[in-house]
Amino acid sequence: MQRRHLLQNALALAGATAAPWAAAQPGYPSQPIRWVVPYPAGGGTDVLARTVAEAMRETLGQQIIVDNRPGASTNIGAQLVATAKPDGYTFMSADNAVLAFNEHLFSKLPFSPEKDFTYVGGISRFPLALVVHPAFEARTVKEFLAYVRAHPGKVNYASPGNGSPHHLAMEMFKTRTQTFLTHIPYRGAAPALQDVMGGQVPCMFLDLAAGLPVIQSGKVRALAIGSAQRVAALPDVPTLAEAGVPNTEVFAFQGVLAPAGLPAALTARLNAELNKALLNPAVVKRMADFGMEALPGTPEQFRAMARAEAARWGEIIRAAGVKLD
Q1: Which residue spans adopt a coiled-coil conformation according to this UniProt entry (predicted)?
Q2: Domain containing residue 287: CATH number
Q3: Count of alpha carbons within 13 Å of 236, Cβ hemisphere only?
Q4: pLDDT tens-digit map of 169-211
C-alpha cells in the first residue's frame, strides 16, 4: 500500500511538471532515443531497462533503442553519456557503480558523478541477502559468525567481481562484525552463484534480482536480508539488524542519468515519463519478479540518495583498501 501511494504521488508530480515542458519543447521526441546500459545484454539491469524503455515508448510515441556498452566497471558507458549532447536523446541506466562506488575505487575517473550528469530519476532498489550453500553448517547469522571466527581467513566468499555491490556488501559486513573472509571474485554474478550452489564456495552476498528464485527453491539458504525491513517474498528471513548486525543496510539501486546541461523542461518531461512507466503493469510485474522496490520521485530526490550512498560507501571502500587501478 505504501508503495502504491508513493507511485501515485510521483505520477501526480509528473503531471504537474510535464505541462511547462509541453510549451517549451514542442515536437519532442522527433527521433529515436538511445538508452545506454553499461552492462552486457541479458542481465538484470539490461532486462529492466528494456522493460521500462518499452513502457516509456508507449507514452512518448518514439522508439527507445537500448545500447549495451559494458566494460571498465561501467565507466565506458558512463563516459559515453557524460560526453553526449544534452538534447534528451541520450540517457542511461546508472547504478551503485556509476554513482557511489567508482569515484572511490578508481584514482581517476573520465567523468564526475556530480558535475557531468543530469539526474533524471530513480528506477528501483533491491536488497542483497547473505546466502550460504544448503550444506553449510551455519543456519543463522550468529552461527555463521561463530564459524568464521573459529576459522579466520579460511572461509571463502564469492562475488561477481572486484568492486561489485556484492563484494562491497561483504566488506561492510566484515567491518561491522570484525571478521575475516577471503574474497573469490568471478566474472559476473552467474558463475559466482553457480559455484555457491555447487558448494565450491560456501557463501556470498546475492542480490534478490538474481537470487530470489534460487533462494525460494532451496538451492541456497538465505541467512539475512540487507534491508531495513523484511522482504515480503521471504518473510521468514530476518534483516541483518534483526540478526545482530546493525547499520549494515546493503542494496543495489538503479536510476536514469542524462548528460549535464539537459534543459530543466526536458528533465521534467523525462522524469514525468519515467514515473509513469513505474506504474505500467509490465514494469510492476517485472519488478515483482525480481524482488525490486520501485523508486519514483523527483530528480532532486534521486540525486540526494545517490550522493548519500557515495558518502556511505566511500568510508567502507577506504577502510577495506579496495582499488580497481
Answers
A1: none
A2: 3.40.190.150
A3: 6
A4: 999 999 999 999 999 999 888 899 999 999 999 999 998 877 8
Before 238, cis peptide (omega within 30)? Answer: no
**Distance from C-alpha of 104 to C-alpha of 324, rounded to nearest angstrom:** 9
Same domain, 21 and 86: yes
Radius of gyration of the chain (CA): 20
The DSSP H or E segment spanning 78 is: helix 75-82
- Beta-carbon neighbour count of residue 299 at 10 Å? 24
Let me know: does 260 contact 122? Beta carbons within 8 Å. no
**Please, are residues 204 and 158 in contact by the beta-carbon 8 Å criterion?**
yes
Grid cell at residue 142: 550468529
Residues 17, 157, single domain; the answer is no
Please tell me the distance from the alpha carbon of residue 277 to that of residue 40, in angstroms, as a whole number.
Answer: 23
> Other C-beta atoms within 10 Å of 167: how many?
24
pLDDT tens-digit series, residues 126-166: 889 999 999 999 999 999 999 999 998 899 999 988 888 99
| Predicted TM-score (pTM) above 0.70 | yes
